[in-house]
Amino acid sequence: MVGGGKDAFIGAIHRIAANSDGLIELVCGALSINKDIAIDSGQSLFLPQQRIYLTYEEMIEKESKLPEGERMDFLTIVTPNFAHYGPAVMALENGFHVVIEKPITFTIDEAKQLKKKVEETGKILALTHTYTGYPIVKHAKELVKQGALGKIRKIYVSYHQGWLSKLSEREGNAQAAWRTDPKRSGKAGAMGDIGTHAFNLAEYITGLQVTELSAALNIVVEGRALDDDGGVFLKFNNGATGVLTASQIAAGEENNLFINIYGENGGLEWHQQEPNTLLVKWLDKPTEIVRTGMGYVSPIAKHNSRTPGGHPEGYLEAFGNIYRNFALTLSAKLNGETIDSTLIDFPSVDEGIRGMAFIENVVKNHQSNEKWTKFEI
Amino acid sequence: MVGGGKDAFIGAIHRIAANSDGLIELVCGALSINKDIAIDSGQSLFLPQQRIYLTYEEMIEKESKLPEGERMDFLTIVTPNFAHYGPAVMALENGFHVVIEKPITFTIDEAKQLKKKVEETGKILALTHTYTGYPIVKHAKELVKQGALGKIRKIYVSYHQGWLSKLSEREGNAQAAWRTDPKRSGKAGAMGDIGTHAFNLAEYITGLQVTELSAALNIVVEGRALDDDGGVFLKFNNGATGVLTASQIAAGEENNLFINIYGENGGLEWHQQEPNTLLVKWLDKPTEIVRTGMGYVSPIAKHNSRTPGGHPEGYLEAFGNIYRNFALTLSAKLNGETIDSTLIDFPSVDEGIRGMAFIENVVKNHQSNEKWTKFEI
Amino acid sequence: MVGGGKDAFIGAIHRIAANSDGLIELVCGALSINKDIAIDSGQSLFLPQQRIYLTYEEMIEKESKLPEGERMDFLTIVTPNFAHYGPAVMALENGFHVVIEKPITFTIDEAKQLKKKVEETGKILALTHTYTGYPIVKHAKELVKQGALGKIRKIYVSYHQGWLSKLSEREGNAQAAWRTDPKRSGKAGAMGDIGTHAFNLAEYITGLQVTELSAALNIVVEGRALDDDGGVFLKFNNGATGVLTASQIAAGEENNLFINIYGENGGLEWHQQEPNTLLVKWLDKPTEIVRTGMGYVSPIAKHNSRTPGGHPEGYLEAFGNIYRNFALTLSAKLNGETIDSTLIDFPSVDEGIRGMAFIENVVKNHQSNEKWTKFEI
Amino acid sequence: MVGGGKDAFIGAIHRIAANSDGLIELVCGALSINKDIAIDSGQSLFLPQQRIYLTYEEMIEKESKLPEGERMDFLTIVTPNFAHYGPAVMALENGFHVVIEKPITFTIDEAKQLKKKVEETGKILALTHTYTGYPIVKHAKELVKQGALGKIRKIYVSYHQGWLSKLSEREGNAQAAWRTDPKRSGKAGAMGDIGTHAFNLAEYITGLQVTELSAALNIVVEGRALDDDGGVFLKFNNGATGVLTASQIAAGEENNLFINIYGENGGLEWHQQEPNTLLVKWLDKPTEIVRTGMGYVSPIAKHNSRTPGGHPEGYLEAFGNIYRNFALTLSAKLNGETIDSTLIDFPSVDEGIRGMAFIENVVKNHQSNEKWTKFEI
After folding, report:
1. Does a structural domain hold residue D316?
2. Residue A165 maps to which CATH number?
3. How far apart are the C-alpha atoms of B373 and B214, rounded to whole Å?
4. How far apart, in whole angstroms, are the C-alpha atoms of residue B102 and residue B356?
5. How many domains is chain D partitioned into structurally?
6. Could you say which of A71, A101, A123 is where a domain stops?
């Protein structure tokens, strides 16, 4: 693991998610650029002294010299956005598979180069767009794919948080500090941090792709350097349209990601904060409450849950699904087996590139006077 | 009453709403342009034979000759949009007050002239933007007014229905037929029919006014003549921004009007389909569930409800509040009394003009390539 | 109307409910035993001076002497429980139909005698067990009747309020004072006031009858004279069992009446505070959200609603349904027509007797050491 | 681990829960009494060949001979109820700590003897009453403890499932088979399997103890040997009363455990299926929605959650909290440190005994004609 020391947030989440199925074990780490934190964090995670590294370069170099079966199998990168690309490329080049916290890179060019590297090396890359890991989200994708709703016509997707309602980046909030800093976060603030999740979710469930957009970004809190709020009108490749909103100044909201998708025959509604329930609406009959773990859900939803109906699964299990599917894929590859990719899926470098392109295109449109611009990669 | 015969929808709603408090009685009607329907409808409403009229002109003329105390006090207009202006002006000119189903007129010019007529005659005009009649919506307005949320920053308002998911106007649905017909409905379809309600709700609760907008309208169902779906980015006069969406092709939705408003300190959330609950969200403490009829709500919410907490009030009571407040205002005027307008409010000609301007401005922006255009009246 | 003066609660509800459909008009009243309140209340309701009476005896006597077509058609009784029987009997004997607020009488013997009187006179009596007036409750009854759930096995019904959490009857709360007073309220407190509603709802929806019960009543607030909380285990005539709870010390609850009914194939769930939604649960497929006003609901639900789906109906409309169905039945009777009783129903004297028997049997069982006792009438 | 082979349910849950924090590692197992399943299961969990045992006796014996630091630290028992006591006692006697799936034993006598054994050996025993592991349940306990609600007066707790609506034990459902078999499950069916969870939850949150009860059990599905449904009236040691219901024939329910607790000032409501939300109700102000992970929750709730607000935690995390707190306690004990038991708690042998006593007392009361009987241990 690169990053994820004691002062970080998402590293611990990755570790729990990776641990949970007994398929993955943390064996080494370059957990912080701060030496003391790196060592202290490694010790508290019971890492052997010699595998607590101070830089990712050192880690990759030394690990690659360990005998097979002993050295790490893959590298997880949980550093701020600007520090994704370096370790990812080096890992791939040295024969390690890679898991990266989203967004995949700092710029879209890095993302494209990373794709080339993945193709060259034949290694596996997983990108932790967590929300598509929820079983019922996968069931929703399946419903759309099977045509249950008819042609998709309209997509509303929103991701609203309130935690940046104040200028927290100036008040010692480290998370706020790097996420609102163009040098560490990238071209966009809220739209990059959470808008990309909404974008990914919409494309994942519908299987459609955005082709044009019209964006309006706002910096609501005075003194902030990046957008903390915004909206995007979307056109999709089948003629459907959409509205995507992202905000980090929606005071009082926690992590309110929700999506509504409408087709000719009916619609879907899902709220991340109650993630085990999918509402399936119909033109002429009652709305159905489809629930994780029930006997009637599709095989992909079953594969991606761990408990029977009524035993709520949460964010960590959704996260765990990415790791589990990555591990199953990796293990199949090592054993020369094939996997059933209709059950075992996870976001990878293509989703990463589209996410970076979303940021690029939104910012470009926002800055122009043209209403609609093409979605270009 | 003009319009509202047996084949109509909203007329019956107006009658129930007007009846409910025992303040208003239906005394005459020109209920349909179809003679048989007009007579039949009048009889089934127990109207005296001689006060069942065949045209509004006849009604206004004859009623104005009846002795005071016997003749009607005001005229309710529940015809399709294109037939609002005529009876409204004639009624005002002949000394009758007026209640009009929204939108106030067919064009914004008619609306402006109607305003002049109201000012000239000193008569009272009520416009039935029903959703602002809900007690808890009025409480929400009061919370914003008192500054509980701090400066308002962001408004999301949506009105989603599914009933026009098919080309129902060609399948004998009379409601669908006139509402999708530019000659009877006006320049906009969904945006005029329901988008204006969303717009009115947002301005009502926040006390803000839209100053600029960027719109994207869609005709989703092939063969339809007016927009059945659309979105609008909004800028408000205090610097806040908003996103308004309206759709009548959101298959499986009933009458899903909802609003989220965020200020510096917290936010509000209200869903019309569960209209007795207002969520009040805070940055640093638990979300509160504020409920109609409870002891703690503001005086305006109390005045506008009829039952104690836990006895749900609905759409008809919200509608009834407009009639009741109109009747109380009328009665105070007749008796030379003053009313407490902080408790007794209803939409009138100014809201009507802003609604028409919303339609005009949205359509104009949609048709232009400019992203943002000023909201002009 | 007997009772329902300015200081009362339920009288105003009855008036709004009766008004709403334009079928019923208040023509006279003995609105209070306090002369000033009686007169003042009558005037504020626009009653003619000579039809504001001071006692129900005077009213019935004088009204019965008015010419047909002018005199009142029926009498509504909204006095405290102990004062139901007198006016009801006198009204029936003098040729008037009767509407009574529940519980029907003070004792079960009065209820039985009232039934005889109804049968003798052939007059119509409606009892306002309001909650069975909700359209979706009627749809639930229809689902059970059609066997959708299979044989009914289990019924949970609860009615929880918090308004008697303090000794409010000693703090000037008039409602609390008579409802907790054995001389005015009867043998039971909460179990009579609201437990009977829960009992009525369970028997109404399922079409079953309680045959045995086991009860535990509590006086939670020190100093109170009647139960303010309690539970009852029930056995029904088809072998099903049930649990009924009623409480007025459930601090923080408004008017939380809810019911769950389970059969062999599935279950129903309804909450009075969100009265337009019925959850229909199934063994092997998703729960359905059945909603008032939608095209798919049964004819009885359609007859008993006034607005299309998504326009919430509330308590006043449920109440209004009892009055409307009563008025339609009355009108059919006067015109010698027959009505469709599968659409037009309302609680009457039999429901009143069962309600009184419920109170008797619960109190008797509670006071005994026997666990189970027969439900006797 | 004893039990939990490939054909079992709860074993996998225990493993995920134990894994998730990186504090616990599965090192050996006697996973099934079926040799092939035991071996196959052990291999698929990557256990070393020599630590896949065929019986618990063999495992305890051999493990206890391994050097400290290499041998297992504690034993998890996930066999059917009748097979809890044997391995538990043997483990304690051989110096191993123990985790047991609930109910603790087959009979109350076994439970009492186990307690003695725990006291004699000084070892730690954790009982996986999972539902008290939810962070917001712990917050609820804290609220009650701090007196926020005043004296507790009323407790409603229900656990409703539908999975035994048919005679599944005869249709090859292994879970159903042992849970409805008196020889493997014990004296009670639903009341033992899930009623004990409800009982434990009520006592945990309130800190009160049941002193008297009145029970009514039912065998609803013909041919079943144990109760599949029942209700219990409860009296608590502070004078509060309660109603507990448990059903496994509530067709269409998943795992619907919910609780309402009312005190003098307000109430609490929690639903296991949406476990991150606690409703806190007040007499005179709006209900509050208290949510897992928010800054305002109490320290015990914070200690027991892993993600920030809005990232839903689920059943596996609640389960994991028992393991984590057990591991932290164990580790502190091994290191001679003290732990903060106001943060780090888990159910143990006392809760186990009370659970067994609940079963005994419920069955005894049900079989008697006496309405109320003392809760005896």
Report:
1. no
2. 3.30.360.10
3. 7
4. 10
5. 2
6. A123
Tell me, yes or no, whether B211 and B157 share the same domain: yes
Same domain as C96, residue C142: no
Q: What is the pTM of this model?
A: 0.97
Q: Do B160 and A260 touch (CB under 8 A)?
A: yes
C123, C151, C166 - which closes a domain: C123
Residue D65 counted as domain residue: yes
Here the ipTM equals: 0.95
Do D101 and D190 lie in a common domain? no
Round to whole Å and give the CA distance between B339 and B332.
7
D232 and D152 part of one domain: yes
| Domain co-membership, C15 together with C162 | no
Clarify whether residues D115 and D200 are in a common domain.
no
List of chain A residues whose C-beta atoms are within 8 Å of the C-beta of residue B160: 260
Q: A322 in a domain, yes or no?
A: no
**Is B313 close to C317, i.e. CB distance below 8 A?**
no
HSE (side-chain half, CA atoms, 13 Å) at D137: 31
Token pair of B127, please? Answer: 């416009």
In order of B132, B213, B233, the CA distances from B243 in angstroms are 19, 10, 5
- Residue with tokens 């003798």, as numbered in its chain: C120
C150 by Cβ neighbours in 10 Å (0-12 / 13-18 / 19+) ranks as: middle
Cα pseudo-dihedral C2, C159, D216, C260, rounded to 10 = 110
Contact B335, B328 (CB under 8 A): no
Residues 6+ apart with CB under 8 A from D34: D5
Instruction: Rounding to the nearest 10 degrees, give the CA dihedral for residues A87, A89, A92, A98.
Output: 50
How many CB atoms within 10 Å of residue B208?
21
Task: Mark whether C172 and C34 lie in a shared domain.
Answer: no
The CATH number assigned to the domain holding D58 equals 3.40.50.720
Is A152 contained in some domain?
Answer: yes
CA–CA separation, D361 and C15 (whole Å): 53
- Only one residue has tokens 């025992």, namely B22
Residues with Cβ within 8 Å of residue A334, at least 6 apart in sequence: none
Q: Which of A289, A290, A298 to mutate to test the interface with C (most CBs of C within 10 A)?
A: A289
Of C16, C273, C314, the CB nearest to B314: C314
Torsion angle of the four alpha carbons A346, A348, A353, A359, in this order, in degrees rounded to the nearest 10: 40
If residue C10 lies in a helix (H) or strand (E), which one and from where to where?
A: helix C10-19
DSSP string, D130-184: GGGGSHHHHHHHHHHHTTTT-SEEEEEEEEE--TTSS-GGGTT-HHHHHHT-HHH
- What is the domain extent for residue B26? 10-123
Do B80 and B215 reside in the same domain of the chain? no
Task: Determine if the peptide bond prior to A103 is cis (ω within 30°).
Answer: yes
Residue ranges of chain A whose CB lies within 8 Å of a chain C CB: 279-280, 284-291, 294-296
Residue-wise pLDDT tens for chain A (377 aa)? 999 988 777 899 999 999 888 889 899 999 999 999 999 999 989 899 999 999 999 999 999 999 988 999 999 999 998 999 999 999 999 999 999 999 999 999 999 999 999 999 999 999 999 999 999 999 999 999 999 999 999 999 999 999 999 999 988 888 888 889 999 888 999 999 999 999 999 999 999 999 999 999 999 999 999 999 999 999 999 999 999 999 999 999 999 999 999 999 999 999 999 999 999 999 999 999 999 999 999 999 999 999 999 999 999 999 999 999 999 999 999 899 998 988 999 999 999 999 999 999 999 999 999 999 999 99
Residues of B in contact with A369 (CB under 8 A): 370-371
D307, closest residue in chain A (CA to CA): A13
**Closest by alpha carbon to C83, among C19, C13, C1?**
C1
Size of interface B-D (CB pairs under 8 A): 34
* Whole-angstrom distance, CA of residue A289 vs CA of residue A281: 9
